[in-house]
Predict the structure.
Amino acid sequence: MTAALGRNLVLLALLASTVGAVVGSATAARGSAVGWAWTRRLAYLFAAAMVAANGLMVWALLARDFSVSYVAQVGSLSVPNWVAVVSLWSSLEGSILFWGLVIGGYVGVATWANRDRHPEYMPWAVAVWLACGAFFAFLLAGPAQPFQTVSPVPADGPGPNPLLQNHLLMAIHPPFLYLGFVGMTIPFGLASAALLTGRLGHDFLRPLRTWLMLPWTFLTVAIVLGGWWAYEVLGWGGYWAWDPVENASFLPWLTATAALHSALLSERKGVLKGWTVTLVLATFLLTILGTFMTRSGVFNSVHSFTQSAIGPTIFVFLVLALAWSIALLALRIDRLAAEGTVEPALGRDSLFLVNNLLFVLFTFTVLLGTVFPLLVEALRGVQMSVGRPYFDRMAVPLGIALLLLMGVGPALPWGRATPQQVRQALVPPLMGAALVTAVAAALGVRRPWTLLALAFGGYTLQVTLRELWLPLARRRARGESLGRALVESGFLRGRRRFGSYVVHAGAAVVIVAIAVSSTMGTSREAQLKVGEKTQVGAYTLTFLAVDEVSEPHREAVVARVGVSRGGRELGVLSPRMNQYERQREPIGTPAVRSSLFEDLYLSVMNIDSASGSLGLLAMVNPMVGWIWAATALMALGSLVSLVPSRADTRP
Amino acid sequence: MSQPVVGERKPRALNQRVLLLGFLVVAPLVAVLLLNLGRDPHVIDSPLVGRAAPEFTLQPLDGGEPVTLASLRGRPLVLNFWATWCVPCFQEHPLLVSAARALGDRARFIGVIYEDSEEQVQGFLARQGSAYPSLLDPGSRTAIAFGIFGVPETYFIDAEGRIAAKHVGPLDAASLEAKLRQAGLSP
């Protein structure tokens, strides 16, 4: 019953999106008001059907309705309700259904927001969105049906993958990732519309950039949440491993970041339009590639879903989307003629080009490292991995160069700068660089790459703070009160600019924190009996006791470890090993004690409650917490610049 | 992809450079993915294939004498690790039952229960039918000895007790027959 209703909702979504895509394209080609109204109605219908299908699945998961195949696969009587809800995206079919919800939501909202704007572009855009929506509805109707009827109805199910039950972050990370990934469909549709009409006017660059920035924000947060989850759950003390699935989320982030910058230049100077559109298309294509990587079983990773018929289907969609994008670009890119030129001289404009070059280089580097093992395996039949050394060697210089560019670019004036202007702009921030480097050296930082990152970080932070301060200072100089100047420059008139620099400040801190945390940590492995002590960094750790804890959906063996520093007691940390029902391998949960500058990170390697022995991995990770905090700052800045300004809300 | 600095240019119907560049970037990627499509990196050839199967002594579900691997020699053996909570096991169950019935004395079938309760299994077999013994594996010792990653996994053991083949995931009629042949089933 529930399953049949779910299948019908999926079919309704498929019908609405297919017809909508056809009506939308016909409308765009001929231009009829009635056709446009119907296109919008079908977009809303598609959104509603997807929302309803997801609501139904959540209800079935909560009711433990095992007659629905997906519930029989991932549901369980023994899991708490929040896990039951999270199960929606814990397995293959459900994750595609959830994808449907997100694409439905985006298409519904983006259509509504532009219902009476940009009439020459919007029918094309909505048609492209609905075509993408139709593909996912097709997946749900065919290769990845979550609503199959199971008969006879099982009495209980196995529950979702225990890794997903192990931490609350798993309830937050995937939705953000989907909001980021799926959201790239919207700028893809807008960019396609620009190419199809052969126009990309100033008025249309704004929504393009806004709708790119929104999913970009989600993707940024999602990538870092994924790292945070790995850090809090996987127990090896790191947050990024260049795993293919991590790379899958990083690749579109790189091109989207490049596109945000080139779109700004397109908007200001009327140049690089074709290039901006290319980056937007590439971002969407990389999200589909990423989806293929996680859903096809071709890549081996802790994150990926197992193999299924969905892989080949997504592959076909990827090939179609690639062909569409290349054909569209080849046929129309010359129509997006530039209205100006980039001065071939040192200035902010030309550094935008360097920025784009670096981001594209970064994208190809990561893409090559991700795909290369597949090539070797296909040709020689051996499993291999290019692994961390390759990625680190390539990513460190690129990341540090981008960090410096984030300082030098905004410091320079637009257009052509005179040598004197260049000097005036670039010399003062050396103070910030020197200051940060000196402090770091005093604290014992000796590695050249780390010092370089810190120096560039100081440089960029000084520039960024100055750019944040400057409009405020100008208003103050004109006699405005401090409060008014702050509100006007930060939140009203200069909001987009202000928000962008807040994002820059956050990004600079993230890069510095990554550089410090990955090079300046200490770690110690110790085998302890109850009562024994070990030392890591400035901390003394005492193994106090072993407890066995029984929870509804898992059993756990918990190590109680007393922590003190310099003779002062800091409390007890409890890293643990969880044993889930029906899983042979136990899953550890590390314990983390964060302070302003460093984390103490304890992870159980092995534990035996009978003999009271503990294998402990203890680490001191400096500045890791700064990554999470600075990402929140990036998201905040991005939200500030996303809020529509008065100019945007005028019809 | 156009070059970043776009100067004055006459619009053309088709920008062949963009087409060529796009093709050069995309074609190798598509080719590599295509070559790897259908491959499952999680399937690692079991190091046990070709070697003697690990010895075991397990209690049957319905009581009776313990079953040892040695006592099962002399005929090809299908050793199926399964559980009632596993949906693919549910799917392959009818095939295994009908094959066991059809082959009669020409091959032996044994189920090994993986992480499940006796009552659940008894209820399942009562509803779905059974044609061969299922063995209890307390503490999953036998499953560990065979290197089971998940259920269902099925080992095909020949008359001399050597592992001839392994199947991961639900069995279909064709692989069941082919792998039984590898274990020495006469046509």
About this structure: Chain A touches chain B through 57 residues (CB under 8 Å).
